[in-house]
Design goal:
homodimer; 134 residues; mainly alpha; three-stranded antiparallel β-sheet
Chain lengths: 134, 134
């Protein structure tokens, strides 16, 4: 039985360089994007200020947060709004597109969370086997 | 309303370096892993030989396929079996864990496929705006 996704030819073509899947998976593979999306999703009205994100996305640098937000804005996952106050207030809000992404991302994150012990066990087994033959 | 995932503290801690989510998302962000998983899923008995994968995962190099398969084997997503023939036959089979991953991965891939035009439109708009102010 052929896989429906394989049949759709979405992965096909002589070159995967411009493949949308690779492109967006790479974005998600960047953990900071996922952390920013999840943090916004958990904020009132799916909206947060730069400083809120800095505080909640533990470990992110100011520069990395700026880059991540710019990428997500460009992809239409969030919007950036500047309020002309002193100092200027900048707010980031998840778009309808960003909220839609949340469902599949959550499902994947939950799966990873649930099966993580199995993956860790498998890695330990593998490393033992490899050590034994090398 | 707080996000249930945020509340679980799965993303928390002083350091995300060892975060399982980042770890596995990075693996998925590597497009070859996803392509190999989807190809195996579409093969009879979720099983294929190295040469089948080379043929079906368009554009992958022999070396990259070897690396990808080794990582996926280590994670317990697939098994590798060598049959003592001449030349030796090597078969890769999706495990129960790998099959389970397929559901959430498919959902994500389908979402990307469906919303890709919106993402492209957003990128074009963004680039136009950026050009206008620079």
């Amino acid at each position: 039985m052929a896989d429906p996704l394989a049949k759709q030819g979405f992965f096909k073509g002589p070159d995967h360089t411009n493949c949308p899947i690779s492109d967006l998976l790479a974005r998600l593979g960047d953990k900071w994007s996922v952390l920013v999306i999840v943090t916004l999703a958990g904020s009132p009205d799916h909206r947060a200020r730069f400083s809120d994100l800095m505080r909640n996305v533990t470990g992110i640098s100011q520069r990395m947060l700026t880059t991540t937000l710019r990428h997500l804005e460009r992809d239409g996952i969030l919007t950036r709004r500047v309020f002309p106050e002193v100092p200027p207030r900048v707010e980031y809000t998840l778009t309808e597109l960003g909220l839609g992404l949340l469902g599949p991302v959550r499902a994947l994150v939950e799966w990873i969370e649930q099966r993580w012990p199995d993956i860790e066990r498998s890695r330990a087994d593998y490393d033992t086997r490899i050590d034994a033959i090398s």
